[in-house]
Amino acid sequence: MYCFLFFILLIPFIYLNQNYIKQIYTLSNVSKGKKVVNKMQIISTMFGIMFSFLKVYIFQKLNKNVKCIGLNKYELRFIINNKLIKIQVICNNDNPILQIIDDNDNDITQQIEPYFQDLTIITKYKPNDFNYHKLTFETIDGDEKTFDSHDLIQID
Questions:
Q1: Which residues, in sequence order, are bridge partners of residue 107?
Q2: How far is CA 134 from the centre of its chain?
């Protein structure tokens, strides 16, 4: 996808400078009408665009907000008010929606359908889900609750 986007951005450069592609390494000035274009500026702009694509690609590879933890089971990680929040969801592929049309008969399926995906948010966990045999929770009230490997964790 990034290569495709890069080539899409590269096409205007090639089209506007097709007469001067052979001279690109001479670094001379080329006048197009009243505008003077320096070859070094074009090359530096091209490298700037490539660097931007590379930077976005690296950020997406390093930033793992969605992690696959099983068959159609994912862990979503995000931060709200400086708190790390993790939610486990099961993504079912059973979506009965074919098309969504507004009152002017425009197809708006792409905008509305993502709100109605068949996702199940997992709210009941066991210590086994986190790869532990026993977990002990201490609450603000001073209560201590211990859960064994197959007990449902319920904190009231």
A1: 101
A2: 35
- What total of structural domains would you count in the chain? 3
- Reference 56, options 7, 10, 5; nearest CA is 5
Which residue range forms the structural domain that includes residue 138?
Answer: 125-156
84 and 113 belong to one structural domain: yes
Q: What is the pTM of this model?
A: 0.51
Q: Do 115 and 80 fall into the same domain?
A: yes
Residues of the chain with pLDDT under 50: 25
For residues 101 and 107, the answer to whether their CB atoms sit within 8 Å is yes
- The mean pLDDT of the chain is 77
